[in-house]
């Protein structure tokens, strides 16, 4: 398998390599590294509780969700490359503005954080919705699963390094500036580093060529299939909305749970989140072999149900070891499923429908993260962490059953049609 990867990676095009460089910076800073570890802790140091953390993360998810479909439409008009550039540039600017919250009048501070975070999420939507169609356009069928797997491994791998760095940075700035770790300043300056590191990511994306976002000929030929494709995309999005609930509950509140619920020190939190990213990276590299043997649908559903089992220790054992082991299992399993589901959803539709599919599934993920964040914050404030974890497990089981029922039946029907056509040909 290693030789297969090495041979395939050497053949990646210049555009794919530039894209993966930008993705590595995003993993180190935004998607799994410094920002996810420290931003919630920054909010806690500003005096906010888990309910506000849930509310602001809910606003982020909602903004991402509501702008996911428009992000696809914008790329059709402006081009996918320019849309991704606009997204990362917006993200960097909003991350910088977020850190000035301490200097905003107290009565406006909550709104400042909410607006900057929401606009940042719009930037991420502009980038992410168009990133998946870009990879489909920039790769051949033979290398595609490996490219998605490398991306799926690269984000958590750089996130692993970023999480370790994030665990150390507050202590470094605390000693440098003379503030205690209960003060927001040691958490503010690492977020400045995040914004600065997005500049080279913008430069890398600037250098790639424009790609097909579905403006051309296939769009005119798709009319007879429109209704079936809308149903297909809708079912996919609804099932995904339910299925990612365990992941969003764990990712959205793990650092808050360890810090606020279990009183774990910040360096230890960074270490746990870093190891989780490392496991996710290793799992992602297994995806091509597993999907080749069992198919994307089985891998996605089985891994989602296994993640449900992993959240149970977090719900029933209030100890940092149990919480950490459960979280490590969840992130590893979802690291396995992300490349599989990204390739699968893009291959289900033709190029003129890829931004629509990507936008719909991104919207579903964003809506779920928004709902879990808002409801989770209120549930934690009133009832504690256990009801949140158990409720998310229930919804993930429902989503997994729906996904399996629809898409396994679809694959079986396609197999029967293929066999019948071969029989007629003979």
Structural summary, described in words:
The chain is an all-alpha fold. The model is unreliable at 215-222 (pLDDT under 50). It has 17 helices and no strands. The chain has a single domain, classed as MFS general substrate transporter like domains (Growth Hormone, Chain: A, Up-down Bundle), CATH 1.20.1250.20. It has helices at residues 2-10, 14-31, 34-45, 50-78, 80-98, 106-138, 141-177, 185-206, 217-221, 226-243, 245-261, 266-285, 287-294, 296-316, 320-347, 354-383, 386-425. Helix 10 (226-243) packs parallel to helix 16 (354-383). The protein is globular, with a radius of gyration of 21 Å.
Under the CATH scheme, the architecture is Up-down Bundle
* Rounded average pLDDT: 85
Helix content: over 70%
| Strand coverage percent | under 5%
The CATH topology is given as Growth Hormone, Chain: A
- What count of domains describes the coordinates? 1
Distance between the termini: 37 Å
The low-pLDDT segments are 215-222
Secondary-structure-derived class: mainly alpha
State the CATH superfamily name.
MFS general substrate transporter like domains
Could you state the order of secondary-structure elements as H and E?
A: HHHHHHHHHHHHHHHHH
Query: From the alpha-carbon coordinates, what is the Rg to the nearest angstrom?
Result: 21 Å
């Amino acid at each position: 398998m290693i030789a297969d990867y090495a041979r395939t990676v050497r053949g990646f095009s210049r555009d794919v390599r530039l894209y993966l460089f930008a993705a590595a910076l995003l993993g180190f800073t935004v998607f799994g590294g410094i920002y996810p570890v420290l931003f919630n802790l920054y909010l806690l140091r500003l005096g906010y509780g888990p309910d506000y953390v849930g509310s602001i993360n809910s606003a982020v998810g909602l903004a991402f969700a509501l702008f996911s479909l428009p992000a696809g439409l914008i790329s059709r008009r402006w081009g996918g490359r320019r849309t991704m550039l606009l997204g990362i540039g917006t993200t960097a600017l909003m991350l910088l503005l977020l850190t000035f919250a301490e200097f905003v009048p107290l009565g406006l501070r909550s709104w400042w954080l909410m607006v900057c975070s929401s606009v940042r999420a719009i930037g991420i939507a502009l980038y992410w919705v168009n990133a998946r169609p870009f990879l489909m356009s920039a790769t051949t069928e033979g290398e595609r699963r490996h490219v998605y797997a490398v991306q799926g491994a690269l984000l958590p791998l750089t996130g692993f390094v970023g999480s370790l760095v994030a665990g150390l940075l507050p202590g470094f700035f605390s000693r440098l500036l003379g503030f205690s770790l209960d003060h927001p300043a040691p958490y503010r300056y690492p977020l400045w580093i995040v914004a600065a590191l997005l500049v080279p990511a913008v430069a890398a994306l600037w250098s790639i060529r424009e790609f097909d976002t579905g403006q051309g000929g296939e769009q005119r030929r798709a009319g007879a299939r429109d209704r079936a494709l809308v149903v297909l995309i809708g079912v996919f999005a609804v099932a995904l909305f339910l299925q990612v609930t365990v992941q969003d509950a764990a990712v959205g509140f793990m650092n808050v749970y360890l810090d606020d619920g279990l009183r774990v020190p910040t360096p230890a939190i960074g270490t746990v989140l870093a190891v989780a990213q490392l496991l996710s990276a290793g799992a992602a590299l297994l995806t091509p072999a597993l999907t080749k043997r069992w198919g994307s649908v089985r891998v996605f559903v089985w891994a989602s149900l296994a993640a449900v089992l992993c959240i149970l220790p977090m719900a029933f054992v209030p100890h940092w070891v149990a919480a950490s082991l459960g979280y490590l299992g969840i992130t590893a399993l979802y690291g396995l499923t992300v490349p599989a589901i990204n390739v699968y959803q893009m291959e289900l539709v033709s190029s003129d429908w890829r931004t629509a599919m990507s936008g719909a599934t991104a919207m579903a993920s964003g809506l779920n993260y928004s709902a879990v964040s808002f409801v989770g914050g209120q549930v934690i404030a009133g009832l504690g962490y256990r009801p949140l974890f158990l409720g998310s497990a229930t919804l993930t089981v429902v989503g997994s059953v729906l996904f399996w029922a629809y898409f396994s039946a679809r694959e079986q029907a396609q197999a029967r049609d293929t066999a019948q056509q071969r029989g007629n040909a003979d």
